[in-house]
Predict the 3D structure of the following.
Amino acid sequence: MEDRTLSPNELSASIDDAIRWMTRHVHDMPPDAIMCAFSGLLHYDKAKAEELLELYEESPPSTLIYPKELLDLIRNVINIIRGDPLPLPPTTVGQKRHTCVEIPSTLYELYKIDMKRSNMALWNVIKEKMTQEDEEWLREGSGWGYTLTHQILIWTFCVKLGLRVHEAEQMLTTLREKLYNEVKYCQRKVCYDLYAERIAFLGFSGWDLGMLRKEFRYILDMQKHNGSWWHTHDDEWSTRCINDQDWYPQWRNQDVHEQIRYLARARQGHSTSLSIWALGLWYNYRT
């Protein structure tokens, strides 16, 4: 029954609807959303992946909103994924299935992330030049939620680039199991964006997708009629993002209502693109 309800035809219809929504709003998308959507579409239709990227690059976002360094980082990540879009083989790292004792109990633990350190670590790994500060952040094992997903993504790139492969595989063994248990046993309901990111990054890092059928079903069920996925209906989340100058320092002098409007669309794009990445991985797995 689960395989039937996650059939290739249903996946195709869902992804096609999402592509149409992304195409209509492509110039409102943050660069990391384009990267995630591109990554998922490579498993579904490479031509559509390249078309979306070409459309985006016709009028890239203003550096007044996104720093040039971030745009350059995302372009480099896209090039790496274009060359090797497949998830790590499940045999690359261990698949443990026992539950961990400690599970996060607060949203603060789940949403907390140092984006500056995360982006810097990703950038340095892409350049194949990891610093001591990067090592400390990537090896730090107390994080949950967004910190954990980003650590997993960066260690995955280490394996793909042949950078500290042995350590990266060891870290992935631990961190992926931790994230899987967070998905399965954490009682706190999180914003949909984090939900989708967990599944996409687990899949990309080589976790057995067959263990996540229920989560893929949820992703399909959460899609809106217009083809997108909503980041969150929590107004407090949007307000916190606006007030968090570490996330969006370049917005300090802009009208707050315009910031909220733009953030809502950008976050909606981010959630939609993560869903496309997750479903693209499942499409590849099923077909």
